[in-house]
Please model this.
Amino acid sequence: MKKIILGILSAGILLLGGCSRKKSGGTAAIDWNKTDFKGEQLNLLTWEQYADKSFVEPFEQKYNCKINATFFASGDDLLAKLKAGGGSTYDIISPSGDMAGYLVDAGMLEPVDVSHISAWNDIPDTFKRSDVQKDGSVYGVPYLWGPDYVMYNADVIKKPLESWNELWDPQYKERLALHDDISNIYMIGKMLGRDAADEQALYNMSDADLAYAKDKLSTLNKSIRKYWSTGGELENLFMNKEIDIAVGWPSTLKNLQDQGMNMGWCVPKEGCTGWFDRLMIVKGSKHIQLATLWIDWCTSAQGEALGSIATTFSVSNPKAADYMNDDQKKVAMVSGMDQFFKTINFWSYVKNREAYNEIWTDVKTAK
Model:
């Protein structure tokens, strides 16, 4: 099956790269038929799942280039690395929605010429959110997305959680893992129902709600075995039987299932938050053309299918389903994508991010 997919992929990427497209704006002098970049290197600052060889190697072969990847563990980790390196170090980043808008407003990105993104018109308008658009320019192209949900060892925990409040049950003392990220504060806002009338309320919580979140999360510390930073770290915690339950990503769940663990997952009755990652070009990048081609490839039907297969995440380009088998589409929830999308409150721009970070630091310090 893998050979069949790669065969389809090779033909598809040749078509993508070989098409001559309309020249516009600052890219007027670029030859979009160019395929030989003579060993040029494109540097990604990305989530750990977004540099899988299944979609990196065909791009490298097509354009005679090299993809280098540096991984970040959270939005704030991305920001720190980006400030330290900028366009002299990185070309492409893949932030989630709670950081993407901040980077746009901070002027840390180059606009993406979407006339050279072949799948742009295939991506539903509901995915093209305003937080990555400014003054008529687009600064981020929708990529993959998914939920932050509860996952658990089903050999130990026999039934799904009905409410997020069950995480505070004493039976989970030192058997729980949470992501080391301010998104845990969004979870508290969700539990309070603050987004019932306004989806953005989770990302603009009042001082009183932030104080409540601090106290609530601090009381959970007795149950926390570890605040995990990477998906691989969370996998090891489950495999080593250090934890029974966690809040995490579909990719981790699938990897554990593939390794023989009996894993279950659930979205509690209050609903969940989630992330929608964008592909963006760093301000000052010296490889604008190659960076644009990378975004073009990753968001194409073939490229995004391989990205979803590698990560189990859901797609933004519905045509990716044409390059996935039934099991792969089921894992990525392709058939119910629209309905599933509506059940998630996607992370958004946190204007008072400093306050959220202070709360989160206080929570971890209290452990």
